[in-house]
Amino acid sequence: MKTRSITTGLNALRLAAAVIGLLLVGLKSAHTQSMNVGQTTAAKKGHVDFIADGQSITANQPATVKLHFRVDPGFHINSHTPKSDVLIPTRLTVAMLPGDPEVTNVDFPAGEPFSFAFEPKQKLDVYQGDVVLTAHLKAKPGQHTLKAELYYQACDHAACYPPKKLPIEQPYTAK
Amino acid sequence: MRNALVGGIIVVVVAVLVWAGIHNVKARRAAEADAKNHQMTITVDKPGATASMDSPVADLRGKPAAIFTLTSNTGKRISLNDYKGKPVLLNFWATWCTPCKVEMPWFEEFQKKYAAQGLEVIGINEDEDAKSPEIQAQIKKVLENTGVDYTILMSDQKVGNAYGGLDVLPATFYIDRNGKIVAQAIGLAPKEEAEANIQKIVSGS
Q1: Contacts of residue A19 in chain B, CB cutoff 8 Å?
Q2: ipTM value of the model?
Q3: Which residue of A66, A160, A171, B71 pairs with B97 in a disulfide if CB–CB is 3.0 to 4.6 A?
Q4: Would the CB atoms of A31 and B52 count as touching at under 8 Å?
């Protein structure tokens, strides 16, 4: 009887320790999150973000790696083929070091039509929201990182921002 | 005995939860206050000023306009000092800036309308690589299309630092006869607002 009550008591203690441990872990992450509030609301310089994700391709044959960008709400960037030659097109420069898988081509999506409210007759070709570029390459088996730089020029509904460079890294596995 | 143990554990767990709650609220309040201090405030000149910016816009009103010497698109060396005693509309623009090209014809119109009262309109072109033949041709094309005949100067890519950094175009500064910036417009502002600002600097009020 005594042994059973000691065992039960010990189990209860173990359970309590586990619960308290979980609470403390939860606290730490909540604390970290609330501390990060200040940092995440700090202003960014550019108006386009890159969203890296995990990608796998088949090794040793032509394959594609997707590059996900997101234009800030309320902003647009010129497409890769804007309708006027004075407008700055969105471009991607891929860094290729000796030994890197060769990127043979990058596909840009079609732009969407856009006009400023103050100039409805001028039709622009722009990207807004999510923009996915497709890099064509062939890689040997293993872990790789596609490094590139996006060059873009953003405007909102009444002002334009100088062209910006956004360096990106997209990891992928070739199997 | 067992009940006392279980009861004790419950008390400890509840106490930890209460402490966590209080601590979390305090930490969140501190973070929010800190974030407010770092938050970028958008200062716009007048109602109707229109850009949505996420970096601080320098408010240069009341400050003396920084003096510069730049080369015009016709090769002349021109200083802001050359216009001492005159009201100046100083506009920063670029060929790739669509809103800029909407207001440039207005500025040309105002240059003519207020010339007798001494108004000088100066446009500073901020195209990168403006010396290349390609950009030179684009600048020429834009000036033709907008009908602009007022003074156009080529940026040295440094003058903008004295005028708020030029994170946004168009950026327009209205300078009175004493060389003081009395109004500014960051982003495309309505034509009526531009004219009202001009009237301020030509009348000296």
Answers
A1: 13
A2: 0.72
A3: A160
A4: no
Q: Which residues of A touch B16 (CB under 8 A)?
A: 20, 23-24
Q: What is the pTM of this model?
A: 0.73
From the list A63, A113, A58, the residue with the least C-alpha distance to A83 is: A113
| Residue in chain B lying closest to A74 (CA) | B52
Is residue B91 within 8 Å of residue B106, measured between CB atoms? no
CB nearest B168 (choices: A31, A37, A161): A161
Q: Across the 175 residues of chain A, what is the mean pLDDT of every consecutive 10-residue run?
A: 55 60 50 36 70 96 97 97 94 91 95 92 95 97 96 96 96 96
Q: Who's near A75: CB < 8 A, 6+ residues apart?
A: A47, A128, A154, A155, A156
The Cα B176–Cα B80 span in angstroms is 12
Chain A residues in contact with B2 (beta carbon < 8 A):
5, 8-9, 12
**DSSP secondary structure of B177-205:** TTSBEEEEEES---HHHHHHHHHHHHHT-
CB A102 within 8 A of CB A87: no
Please give the pLDDT value at position B159. 96
B58 phi-psi bin (left φ>0, alpha ψ -120 to 50, beta other): beta
Residues of A with CB under 8 A from a CB of B: 5, 8-9, 12-13, 15-16, 19-20, 23-24, 26-27, 30-31, 34-38, 41-45, 74, 85-88, 116, 118-119, 122, 124, 153, 155-163
- pLDDT tens for B14-64 read 777 777 666 666 656 655 545 444 443 333 333 334 444 455 678 999 999
Q: Which residues of B fall within a CB distance of 8 Å from A27?
A: 20, 23-24
Closest CA to B203 of B140, B114, B127, B122: B114
Q: What distance in Å separates the CA atoms of residue A24 and residue B23, rounded to the nearest whole number?
A: 12
**Rounded mean pLDDT, B178-185:** 97
Provide the shortest C-alpha distance from residue B85 to chain A (in Å): 31
Q: 3-class DSSP state for residue A152?
A: strand
pLDDT of residue B123: 98
User: What pLDDT does residue A38 have?
Assistant: 31
